[in-house]
Amino acid sequence: AQSVTQPDIHITVSEGASLELRCNYSYGATPYLFWYVQSPGQGLQLLLKYFSGDTLVQGIKGFEAEFKRSQSSFNLRKPSVHWSDAAEYFCAVGTRLNAGNNRKLIWGLGTSLAVNP
Amino acid sequence: GAVVSQHPSRVICKSGTSVKIECRSLDFQATTMFWYRQFPKQSLMLMATSNEGSKATYEQGVEKDKFLINHASLTLSTLTVTSAHPEDSSFYICSATQRQVVASNEQFFGPGTRLTVL
């Protein structure tokens, strides 16, 4: 079955510290992988995505993620967290195109990030 | 670019009434629009997928007569919650894919609509 697991429901880090948010997926084919961030009152914003090629993907706001096929993981990292990074982070897997030429997203439950000053 | 808006951002209604939520792609033509529901502290649940000019495809367990979706143009989709009840209270989010970017099918999200049914 297709699924996405984000093992950490809530993480608290100090400002300036490094961050790693975990994401594991279960999918029978080459996955299309996404990380989104959701801030209060704002829409989901795409941080980065992996479709193919280099397994280390650079995103916006200083985030990066590494696709590890052997571990079925796509962990999100940031070397130095800013207070404005406090938000909800979602990992998602994009399915194959269906008959309607659409690709659905399978979502993890999210990780809530708090940043201490 | 690729901005999606939703209106209203927040709505409170009485039980038994119907509520319409609009989703617009402001600066692109949307091949497909998706409607999600999000419960507090939970992930997004896909409700339905709609292609312009076609009937929406509903996910298993979502009542199509309860949640009416219309995608009449390439920039507008509406979700109508009919005869709303308190259990329909939730955060509804739409997303859209760009007509020109089919391969990646990246979804662009609206800010969401908070529905509270009294």
Give the biggest beta sheet of chain B: 7 strands, mixed
Overall SS class of chain B: mainly beta
Shape of chain A: globular
Number of strands of chain B: 11
Q: What is the count of DSSP helices of chain A, taking H or I runs of 4+ residues?
A: 0
Described by its quaternary structure, the protein is heterodimer
Tell me the total number of β-strands of chain A: 12
How much beta of chain B, percentage-wise? over 45%
Low-confidence stretches of chain B: none
Sum up the overall morphology of chain B in one term: globular
Measured as a percent range, the helix fraction of chain A is under 10%
Structural class of chain A: mainly beta
Question: What is the arithmetic mean of pLDDT of chain B?
Answer: 90
**Rg result of chain A:** 14 Å
Describe this structure in words.
- The complex is a heterodimer of chains A (117) and B (118).
- Chain A is an all-beta fold.
- Chain A has no helices and 12 strands.
- The relative contact order of chain A is 0.32.
- Chain B is mainly beta.
- In chain B, strands 2, 4, 5, 6, 9, 10 and 11 form a 7-stranded mixed sheet that branches. Chain B has a 4-stranded antiparallel sheet with strand order 1-3-8-7, with no helix packed on it.
- Chain B is globular.
- The model of chain B has no long low-confidence stretch (mean pLDDT 90).
- Chain A binds chain B through residues 32, 36, 41-46, 49, 51, 90, 94, 97, 100-105, 107-110, 112, and chain B through 4, 31-32, 34, 41-44, 46, 49, 51, 54, 57, 93, 95, 97, 102, 104-112.
